[in-house]
């Protein structure tokens, strides 16, 4: 090729990283003898990441120091303020950037901070300029096209064709296949997160047909444990937890339904486009299914501050969490980096951030917004009928009681005074809040400090035990006893703001800061019966007060609030009837009254059970405006020119969303539907690439692009871009089903390759960029814990349901401000369930899971850490959990080899190793194990049972137990 | 704003080291693969362990600082709940006379924002101490003798007057959870010089942990390697440090030898996977920790005089005294970051004096005054004070006015409060920053473009004394170079640097 001819003959050509480094260290001469395969510098892999990491912060989309901008061709080649040119294509001598990066004067050398460019990097940059300094569009932003499968001999599987083409380019050999035992263990953990059984191993070893492994893959894909394992990957991405974090770290009582929804969906192989739409906008689907509603719990999984110091700040922090999680999880874009200013590296202007945010602007914020869910339309109808029936019976019972009370009062006193003694409210309860407001807040999204019943059945702003003089608020809820159909006038006066609502509709609104003395009134038409009533009230500072009354057919200005000197009227009426009831109503009448009251109270206690899910809701069909906020400050001035509409990131060149006008009566804007549909539309090249890459990552331990949530310029370019695009198109053409893709990947020889080392390959490709072997991996935290339960024999495969509380050492609970708070204790068999079912309390992570690098719960996690540290060893050697499981493991082994006969040591040791490692065990290994048991028994005087327990503990600590080949 | 040559700002964004790149890309490649990816210093750490077989790449191995440090260790005395500045170190003579009067003053606490309130005069007398003549209240009869070693920061500010978020900010710089704590940053930046002890140690009050529990010593988005370890002053100091009663050390050693033998056999055909070797070594390290950690917390090795100095014989001061003495023993052994909580749980179990101010502060100051003074004395006489930075303070301060209609309780105050530092290259006998004449809010100096010293400035100062550039120490996460002090440039408080 012409370009190659431009390269000086002495250049260290396209060798692997290490070889190139060696070449530089040892002088150019040493390249002789190594396989030379001249190839042009790869802009995507070698130049763009270098420029992005080292230069863009000052010479990129956001800033252009000295007029130099290096993220696009035209500006990089243009004349600078100084008169020179940063890059002159084909002429590295004239290119100022090379002069500056190689300068010896630290005041002149670029970059000004951090390590200087390595000789290899300088070299690559020089060659690229010599070769013509051609820019390419960033790999991830290019349209997604199906690449041709390379023609490679003896590679019947398309994936292997791509992999082998790469190996051939590097002169690396095709790896040997893994042995069947290792492969079974690898595949079983991969798809189910659990070890294979002895029987499964035996079957697989016995099956010599070419389809033997295919059958295993199909069996595993059909296992319900598949959904548990793969849902767990997704839970990392959506920062799943069952609590809110912050001071109270309160529970999100229905988050587990979202977890179970994922497990069900993965097991059913629900297409991922559907899974995406359900999570982002399931509520906006026509006739949404329960699962579609539960899926929107996606928006409720993050941290929630119920007592923010700055409400506006928290509102935007909350939205930022949604934008960051959605952007990184579905698009692999760190849109969140453009919150305060244009993105420094990727071409994402701040405007794009707020356009993205505006898709979510209208969401009702809160840690848990609940909505009933029903198994079927029949169940819903039955539920509604029961609710209606209950209400009807309560109304009737109430009317019967009220009739007697009215008669009692009428007979006893003069009728005018009577009503003040009773209350027209019932079942009144209060919620008390503390904070400073100047307008009524959305109390439902706030944490109440106190809640309780109001015995007087009158609105009473001194009822909360923890009352404070100023800066507080109340919500009262209860029922208004409407005696007859007709028009009723309500009078409301308050200091400061208040709002009266009946049956969910606002009747009188008197918001803001004001004094008392100018009451507001409103007249509404009401039906007879018990109607839900609600009063919101807040007190800012200085004087306070609340007065509510109503007028209706046959009565005038009856108070609904506690008067200045009137106390517990309802109690008084009850006392009066208790004292004088018999006299006035007669003995039978009194008995009848008591029975009716008792019946009413019993009815009120009756509940109609219903299941609820935590879902997304919006504030209505009209979204508030969204503005670009200067430096991300939520208090920044909102100028009209900074107003944005929902839009997709400009860099993706997508058509802008057309959001239909919501239908009359719509309760949401439809914005999220537009976003969800675009995410999975052919117009969006990122989501399928991101998803295919994740699937690959969970199979191979690393993505084809390693930074699986950052496909931007700071991310790691894919090692096999064509393979990635091929997989992405395969995903789409397969209808977004994951199971066929798993199958395809696992049936490749690349997946079935041995993990054995190779000195030559390892020297030329130490990162295994080319997949010259299958990388070993350590089990994830949950897999380790689950495998321990499987080995000890107490594993409980029960699926789904609310979170499980496992035993946590009291030393760990002592770290809480109230030790044990928010943590329960589940029965032993529940504790032996899979780790995915453990209640995730953000401030109290189960120790063994935390030790082995569980994903952080507060931010989206694309790749888990694998740390090795002595605290893990301490827990595995000395911890209560391990010792308990080792005892159970030993008991199981004893049981399975036929009782407690001491002569069975050999069989016991063999059995324990086979259970834990699922492979054939050698006589030598058994002999070593027996020797250990004997040493413990003889030398250390430990009894035979205990010595086997300690042996089992040792087995659970083996590297082989938690590492896969 | 920044010229390319300006080292403080130009590169202060979105760069990452290869090490961080590695963490984000996933640490699940084998150790050998790692070697190709990481910068040179990493190779230097791939030393063979004593047994000659296992290479343990200790992620906490000591790393060079950015520049010559003044302090090697930090002891953070966390006065949880928020001590009142006007009753401790921020002398406001005018406030006594205003006691009981309702005045105009802007406050924000858990009770919301207010524009006026009833003054609660300081409940203790102030006297001058030391060559510097520092005014200190009668709450601290012992500590007041050390003012010439202390730099007082009187105009601290924080973003939140609510415990949960304010605790998170004082510990991690952010009011949201999920970010690594100060001790994690110190260990990420510098590693630890004693591999037998954790590098970030937290000792709690006997009444319980602070609000948000483990979030206050979490490593957030960094690996668990950098998270704080709870250390107890009684019983087994670290969780699972001691084998259970039914496993003797001898049995454990026999088991460990068998484990090593089996693991070595497993390693043989997989010799290029250094993770396996590292895990073998981690068991030997755990064994050594079992041996050495109890020694580190064994106070019987201290003289009677020392124990008396810390008030260990006195029930009131015994607990905090023991923990202060432990802190000295830990920094002596190279532990990088030690945090002690005065106060735990809720309400009056900590400095959160909403009800009876006198009772609350007398109690907590009385428990801690002598031990803290002893710690300073002891560090000084052993020469450790020069290399140990001692930090004192709560997540915020308290208001000059009353919270309720009656009583002396004060609500939270993040507009202005006092913290102090000593040792580790800090100037003694100085007081910087000012609150208004009521002690309600910071009024000076202007630092980084805002009034008073924000929590970020405190963090920047601590990192700076450890030899770390707060504007450079970064960790790549979520597409951003995350820093303890945030993206904007933050200056250390140079006025107090020796």
Short description:
The complex is a heterodimer of chains A (about 950) and B (about 500). Chain A is of the alpha+beta class and about 950 residues long. Chain A is about 40% helix and about 10% strand.
Overview of this protein structure:
The complex is a heterodimer of chains A (965) and B (498). Among the domains of chain A are: 2-140, no CATH class; 271-371 and 619-679, no CATH class; 423-579, Sandwich (Jelly Rolls); 880-964. With 965 residues, chain A is of the alpha+beta class. The longest helix of chain A is centred in the middle third of the chain and has 37 residues, at 569-605. In chain A, strands 3-2-4-9-6-7 form a six-stranded antiparallel sheet. Chain A has a four-stranded antiparallel sheet with strand order 8-5-10-11, with no helix packed on it. A two-stranded antiparallel sheet of chain A has the order 1-12. Chain A is globular, with a radius of gyration of 35 Å. By secondary structure, chain B is α/β, with parallel strands linked by helices. Chain B has one domain (73-237, 297-496): Alkaline Phosphatase, subunit A (3-Layer(aba) Sandwich), CATH 3.40.720. Chain B is 29% helix and 19% strand. Chain B has twelve helices and 21 strands. In chain B, the strands form seven sheets. In chain B, strands 1, 6, 7, 8, 9, 10, 13, 14 and 19 form a nine-stranded mixed sheet that branches. A two-stranded antiparallel ribbon of chain B has the order 2-3. Chain B has a two-stranded antiparallel ribbon with strand order 4-5. In chain B, a hairpin with a 2-residue loop joins strand 17 (446-447) and strand 18. In chain B, helix 7 runs antiparallel to helix 8 and helix 10 runs parallel beside helix 11. Mean pLDDT of chain B is 88; it is low at 1-55. The interface between A and B is large, with 128 and 124 residues.
């Amino acid at each position: 090729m012409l370009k190659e001819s431009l390269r000086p003959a002495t250049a260290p050509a396209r060798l692997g990283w290490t070889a190139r480094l060696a070449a530089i260290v040892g002088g150019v001469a040493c390249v002789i003898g190594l396989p030379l395969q001249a190839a042009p510098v790869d802009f995507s892999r070698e130049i763009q990441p270098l420029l992005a990491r080292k230069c863009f912060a000052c010479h990129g989309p956001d800033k252009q120091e000295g007029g130099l901008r290096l993220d696009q061709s035209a500006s990089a080649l243009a004349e600078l303020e100084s008169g020179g040119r940063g890059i002159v294509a084909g002429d590295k001598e004239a290119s100022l950037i090379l002069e500056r990066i190689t300068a010896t004067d630290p005041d002149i050398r670029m970059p000004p901070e951090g390590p200087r460019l390595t000789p290899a990097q300088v070299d690559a940059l020089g060659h690229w300029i010599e070769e013509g300094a051609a820019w390419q569009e960033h790999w991830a932003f290019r349209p997604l096209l199906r690449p041709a499968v390379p023609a490679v001999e003896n590679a019947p599987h398309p994936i292997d064709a791509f992999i082998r083409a790469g190996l051939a380019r590097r002169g690396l050999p095709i790896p040997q296949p893994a042995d069947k035992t290792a492969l079974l263990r690898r595949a079983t953990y991969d798809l189910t997160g659990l070890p294979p059984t002895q029987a499964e191993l035996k079957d697989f070893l016995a099956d010599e047909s070419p389809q033997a492994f295919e059958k295993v893959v199909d069996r595993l894909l059909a296992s319900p444990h598949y959904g548990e394992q793969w849902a767990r990957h997704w839970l990392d991405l959506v920062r799943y937890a069952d609590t809110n974090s912050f001071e109270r770290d309160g529970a999100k009582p229905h988050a587990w339904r979202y977890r179970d929804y994922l497990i069900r969906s993965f097991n059913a192989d629900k297409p991922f486009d559907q899974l995406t739409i359900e999570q982002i906008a399931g509520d906006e689907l026509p006739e949404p299914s329960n699962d579609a509603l539960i899926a929107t719990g996606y928006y409720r999984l993050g941290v929630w501050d119920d007592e923010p110091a700055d409400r506006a700040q928290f509102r935007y922090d909350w939205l930022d969490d949604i934008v960051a999680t959605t952007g990184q999880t579905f698009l692999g874009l760190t849109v969140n980096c453009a919150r305060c200013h244009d993105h420094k590296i990727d071409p994402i202007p701040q405007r794009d951030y707020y356009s993205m945010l505006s898709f979510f602007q209208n969401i009702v914020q809160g840690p848990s917004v609940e909505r009933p869910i029903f198994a079927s339309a029949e169940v819903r109808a039955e539920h509604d009928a029961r609710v209606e029936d209950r209400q009807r019976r309560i109304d009737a019972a109430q009317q019967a009681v009220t009739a007697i009370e009215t008669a009692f009062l009428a007979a006893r006193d003069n009728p005018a005074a009577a009503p003040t003694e009773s209350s027209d409210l019932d079942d009144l309860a209060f919620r008390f809040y503390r904070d400073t407001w100047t307008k009524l807040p959305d109390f439902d999204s706030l944490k109440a400090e106190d809640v309780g019943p109001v015995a007087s059945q009158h609105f009473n702003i001194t009822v909360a035990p923890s009352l404070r003089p100023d800066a507080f608020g109340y919500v009262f809820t209860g029922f208004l006893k409407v005696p007859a159909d007709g028009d009723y006038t309500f009078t409301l006066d308050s200091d400061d703001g208040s709002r009266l609502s009946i049956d969910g509709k606002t009747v009188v609104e008197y918001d803001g800061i004001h004094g008392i003395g100018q009451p507001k009134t409103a007249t509404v038409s009401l039906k007879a019966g018990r109607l839900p009533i609600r009063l919101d009230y807040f007190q800012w500072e200085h004087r306070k007060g609340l007065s509510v009354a109503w007028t209706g057919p046959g009565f005038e200005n009856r108070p609904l609030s506690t008067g200045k000197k009137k106390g517990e009227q309802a109690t008084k009426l009850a006392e009066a009837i208790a004292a004088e009831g018999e006299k006035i109503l007669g003995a039978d009448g009194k008995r009848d009254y008591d029975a009716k009251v008792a019946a009413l109270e019993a009815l009120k206690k009756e509940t109609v059970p219903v299941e609820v899910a935590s879902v997304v809701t919006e504030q209505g069909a009209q979204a508030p405006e969204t503005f670009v906020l200067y430096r991300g400050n939520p208090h920044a001035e909102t100028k009209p020119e900074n107003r944005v509409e929902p839009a997709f990131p400009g860099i993706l060149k997508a058509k802008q969303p057309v959001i239909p006008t919501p239908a009359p009566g719509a309760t949401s804007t439809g914005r999220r539907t537009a976003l969800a549909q675009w995410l999975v539309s052919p117009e969006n090249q990122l989501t399928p690439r991101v998803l295919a890459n994740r699937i690959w990552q969970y199979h191979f331990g690393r993505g084809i692009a390693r930074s699986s949530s950052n496909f931007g310029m700071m991310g790691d370019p894919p090692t096999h871009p064509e393979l990635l695009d091929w997989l992405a198109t395969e995903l789409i053409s397969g209808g977004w089903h994951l199971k066929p893709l798993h199958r395809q990947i696992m049936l490749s020889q690349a997946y079935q390759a041995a993990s054995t080392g190779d000195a030559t390959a390892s020297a030329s490709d130490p990162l295994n960029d080319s997949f010259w072997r299958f990388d070993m991996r350590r089990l994830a935290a949950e897999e380790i814990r689950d495998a321990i339960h499987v080995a000890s024999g107490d594993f409980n495969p029960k699926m789904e349901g609310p979170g499980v509380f496992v035993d946590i050492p009291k030393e760990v609970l002592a770290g809480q401000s109230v030790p044990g708070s928010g943590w329960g204790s589940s029965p032993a068999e529940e504790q032996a369930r899979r780790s995915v079912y453990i209640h995730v309390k953000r401030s109290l992570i189960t120790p063994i899971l935390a030790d082995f690098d569980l994903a952080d719960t507060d931010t989206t996690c694309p790749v888990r850490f694998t740390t090795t540290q002595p605290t893990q060893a301490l827990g595995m050697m000395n911890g209560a959990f391990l010792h308990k499981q080792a005892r159970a493991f030993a008991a199981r082994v004893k049981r399975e080899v036929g009782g407690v006969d001491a002569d069975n040591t050999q069989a016991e040791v063999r059995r324990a190793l086979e259970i834990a490692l699922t492979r054939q065990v050698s006589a030598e290994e058994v002999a070593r194990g027996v020797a250990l048991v004997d040493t413990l028994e003889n030398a250390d005087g430990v009894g035979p049972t205990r010595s086997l327990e300690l042996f089992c503990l040792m087995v659970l600590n083996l590297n082989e137990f938690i590492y896969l080949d | 704003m920044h010229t390319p040559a300006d080292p403080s700002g130009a590169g202060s964004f979105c760069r990452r080291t290869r090490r961080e790149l590695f963490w984000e890309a996933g640490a699940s490649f084998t150790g050998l693969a790692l070697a190709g990816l990481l910068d040179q210093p990493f190779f230097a750490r791939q030393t063979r362990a004593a047994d000659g077989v296992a290479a343990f790449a200790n992620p906490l191995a000591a790393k060079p600082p950015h520049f010559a440090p003044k302090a090697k260790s930090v002891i953070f005395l966390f006065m949880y709940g928020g001590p009142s500045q006007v009753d401790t170190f921020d002398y406001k003579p005018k406030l006594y006379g205003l006691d009981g009067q309702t005045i105009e003053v802007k406050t924000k606490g858990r009770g919301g924002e207010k524009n006026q309130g009833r003054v609660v005069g300081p409940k203790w007398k102030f006297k001058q101490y030391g060559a510097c003549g520092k005014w200190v209240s009668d709450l601290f009869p012992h500590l007041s003798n050390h003012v010439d070693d202390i730099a007082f920061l009187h105009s601290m500010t924080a973003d939140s007057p609510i415990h949960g978020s304010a605790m998170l900010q004082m510990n991690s710089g952010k009011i949201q959870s999920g970010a690594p704590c100060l001790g994690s940053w110190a260990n990420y930046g510098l590693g630890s010089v004693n591999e037998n002890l954790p590098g970030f140690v937290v000792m709690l009050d006997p009444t319980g942990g602070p609000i948000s529990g483990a979030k206050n010593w979490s490593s957030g988005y960094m690996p668990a390697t950098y998270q704080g370890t709870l250390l107890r002053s009684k019983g087994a100091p670290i969780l699972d440090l001691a084998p259970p009663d039914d496993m003797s050390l001898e049995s454990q050693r026999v088991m460990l030898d068998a484990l090593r033998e089996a693991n070595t056999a497993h390693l043989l055909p997989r010799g290029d996977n250094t993770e396996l070797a590292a895990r073998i070594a981690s068991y030997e390290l755990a064994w050594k920790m079992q041996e050495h950690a109890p020694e580190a917390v064994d106070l019987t090795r201290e003289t009677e005089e020392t124990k008396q100095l810390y008030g260990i014989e006195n029930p009131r001061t015994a607990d905090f005294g023991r923990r202060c003495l432990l802190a000295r023993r830990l920094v002596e052994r190279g532990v990088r970051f030690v945090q002690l909580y005065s106060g735990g749980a809720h309400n009056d179990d900590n400095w959160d004096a909403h009800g009876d101010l006198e009772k609350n502060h007398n109690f907590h100051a009385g428990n801690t005054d002598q031990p803290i003074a002893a710690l300073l004395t002891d560090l000084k006489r052993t020469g450790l004070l020069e290399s140990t930075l001692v930090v004192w303070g709560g997540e915020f301060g308290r208001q000059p006015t009353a919270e309720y209609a009656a009583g002396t309780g004060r609500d939270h105050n993040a507009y202005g409060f006092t913290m102090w530092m000593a040792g580790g290259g800090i100037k003694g006998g100085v007081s910087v920053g000012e609150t208004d004449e009521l002690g309600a809010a910071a009024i000076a100096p202007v630092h980084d473009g805002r009034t008073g010293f924000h929590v970020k400035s405190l963090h920047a100062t601590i990192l700076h004394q450890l030899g770390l550039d707060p504007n450079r120490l970064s960790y790549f996460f979520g597409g951003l170079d995350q820093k303890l002090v945030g993206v904007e440039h933050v200056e250390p408080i140079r006025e107090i640097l020796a």
